[in-house]
Amino acid sequence: MKAVIPAAGLGTRFLPATKSMPKELLPVLNKPVIQYVVEEALEPEGVDEVVIINSKEKPQIEAYFSVDGGFESMLRERGKDSEADAVHQAGSLPVSFVYQNEAKGLGHAVLCARDAVPSDEPFFVLLGDYFVPDRKMCVNMAEVSRAHGGASVIAVAPVPADQVSRYGIVGGECVGCLPGCDASGEEEGAVWRVTGMVEKPAPEDAPSHLFIVGRYLLSPRVMEFLATQGPGAGGEIQLTDAMVRLLEKEEMYALVVDPSEGCDTGTPAAWAATNARVALADPASRAAFVEALGPRAAKSLA
Length: 302
Ligand code: G1P
Description:
Blueprint (H helix, E strand, L loop, with lengths): L1 E5 L20 E2 L2 E2 H9 L7 E6 L4 H6 L4 H9 L3 H12 L2 E5 L6 H6 L11 E4 L3 E2 L5 H11 L4 E7 L9 E10 L12 E10 L10 E9 L3 H6 L11 H9 L4 E5 L6 E2 L3 H14 L4 H16 L1
Helix pairs in contact: 3-4, 9-10
Bound molecules: 1-O-phosphono-alpha-D-glucopyranose.
The site of 1-O-phosphono-alpha-D-glucopyranose has 11 residues, from strand 11 and helix 8.
């Protein structure tokens, strides 16, 4: 089973840093953002490869995920074995690449992976501006899919009414919850049967307050609809619009998640906050991070 990560964007929010460095390689502590997403994508049982949709302008991502024996030997000669191990591990992850030559939207990006995804297998899509440290979100989505005959499942979460126009919003009805919890409605763990979806609706057109978080487990049939999908919101080919057409043919479910379980890296401020959060959660970095922050900065955060 494959997992697809769209990563062809220009990273304009991070300019000028991203003039010569892909935003996907910005580090959170000492690991690039995209490696957290790749490792999350490989967590559900059965996922054996991650397909990164890249642009030809960002060869550094492919270089990062390649084994560089010469560099590793040089590190080992200098006694840097744990660093060489870390470099080797990143280079050995099961990652392949396809290319998106034009920025035509998320739906178009996913369609670029059509030949890399078996036409008889569901696949995950993970948006790369966000990662979930405990890697459980996609695992839980796979469980919901299994419970519903292999149907598509998307992660959703409540959002304030005045923010619905920033996201894809789903409509539907709550039909149960993840095993081991008694969640209902918009509570974390509740499972909805999806009946509709709108990309970036005006507040009065939103079918609910549940937004699409950026984790999808999709029927391969969505590729058929993406192939003929015209532009939608923002003039872009939207994954949400193709999913609406898929919904006419197949059942689809949504799992309510707590988006704060994940770390946002989509803007410089969110990325900086994610670095702080991960540093504080990492026993090897916590004390040094607090010390480096200094008492004044630590106090201003409190
Ligand atoms: C994309 C999706 C949208 C989803 C959002 C989550 O939008 O099209 O449905 O809610 O990601 O971040 P974008 O952020 O690319 O505009």
